[in-house]
Design brief:
The complex is a heterodimer of chains A (about 110) and B (about 120). In chain A, the strands form 2 sheets. Chain A has a 5-stranded mixed β-sheet with strand order 1-9-8-3-4, with no helix packed on it. Chain A has about 110 residues and is an all-beta fold. Chain A is built from no helices and 9 strands. The N and C termini of chain A lie far apart (about 35 Å). Helices cover about 0% and strands about 45% of the residues of chain B. In chain B, strands 2, 4, 5, 6, 9, 10 and 11 form a 7-stranded mixed β-sheet that branches. Chain B has a 4-stranded antiparallel β-sheet with strand order 1-3-8-7, with no helix packed on it. Classes of the chains: A mainly beta (about 110), B mainly beta (about 120). The interface of A and B includes residues 42, 49, 94, 100 and 101 of A.
Amino acid sequence: DAKTTQPPSMDCAEGRAANLPCNHSTISGNEYVYWYRQIHSQGPQYIIHGLKNNETNEMASLIITEDRKSSTLILPHATLRDTAVYYCMGAKYGNKLVFGAGTILRVKS
Amino acid sequence: NAGVTQTPKFQVLKTGQSMTLQCAQDMNHNSMYWYRQDPGMGLRLIYYSASEGTTDKGEVPNGYNVSRLNKREFSLRLESAAPSQTSVYFCASTPLNRAVSNQPQHFGDGTRLSIL
């Protein structure tokens, strides 16, 4: 499984885009990049995943560099409810996820 | 839709007591997982079950046992609880259909366990 590196914390103004980076230089060719978040003490929540191409869903966009060594999760219009810990992981088929410390995103009004 | 249900939500034990944490999912998922989360840290995998009838160790299995009772249920047992096992325990499930890539894990709300 790929080792990932994320900044420990970030701040974002409410209504602005939040761009969360992740380095995964050891990711293998068949591992997907997954993003989850954990709000307060709840169970982690799936956000988005991708292999090579950029992906978008109702929650976020995922930009993966061409060499697949890094990615950026974009929350286009952050709200206070997006304050959470965001985890980036590499995994095959979504199983055996390895959670690091993640990035604490604080959305401020 | 209930998703992944964990019981109990809270529990306090004394050192040496035994305890079984229950987890059930109603999504017909093949794979189930047990994680623990300690303050300021991400989740660490304790055990997982890729399919009914199979279980495998994760990153931190010592002090725990698991049972995949049927496709729906995956329990975690502490035979002799220790203070170091004070943690929040999360159960998760995923389809794990290798023909499909979009298989996010669905998590329960956790069991908060304190061992005195």
